[in-house]
Amino acid sequence: MSADHTPSNFTTGATAQAEPVHFASRPRTYFDILIAVFCVVIILSNIGASKGVVFGPIGDFPIITDGGFFLFPLAYVLGDIFSEVYGFRAARRAIFTGFALSILASLSFWVIIALPGFDDPDSMARNEAFAMVLGPVWQIVAASLLGYVVGQTLNSYVLVKIKERMGERALWVRLLGSTGVGEAVDTFIFCLIAAPVIGIQDVGQFFNYFILGYLYKCAVEVVVMPLTYQAIRWLKRREPSYWSEPVAQG
Fold first, then answer.
1. Alpha-carbon gap, residue 47 to 209, rounded angstroms
2. Which SS3 state, helix, strand or coil, does residue 4 take?
3. What is the reported pTM?
4. Quick one: angle between helices 121-134 and 88-114, nearest 10?
5. DSSP letter (8 states) at residue 22
6. Which of the chain's ends, N or C, has fewer CB atoms near its CB within 10 Å?
């Protein structure tokens, strides 16, 4: 009997040929980072929108808004960056990704609320508070998603169409023009559907929320425009494909 007990089909490490390992390639781009931030902002804004907020009164009129007021303008700034740097197709992809993940968040909250919890008084109080804050009120979900999709799509479309006419010059025209259209439609749709839920009870409060909310969001766009300019210039310099052949939009 041979002293070598090594199985005949065994190959030593020195002669073994490793099986190729495959991975999908990922282009060098900042788009994936931006879309992650964009989706988080959208989801947090939708959660915050379920709370009505009143400042004032300033003079004879209170300022009526919602809990997502400080976050939502950032979504339009990011939408402008998507549209200016990556084009309408990429912006549309980001918009529908945010739409899908917002639905997922609402469904997840609904499932979590439906799960049985502990029956001690403290746990029951926390469960009720969780359900009250994060329970998917259909008006808020519908208003947020519909306003967001229509407003962001118009925002991107208008920016790209202006850019097709003006080229790279006068970025501020594209930023203000697109935001003016997108924010107006978004704010109006959201307020029209969600008004009863966030505490708006009459026509005066409705127009207070709509007009002041719209002006505030446009003002934020103007205030952060120097930063938006810098972010867009930075991305254009670092995205390898930006200055290559023109990309057809549609």
1. 18
2. coil
3. 0.79
4. 150
5. -
6. N
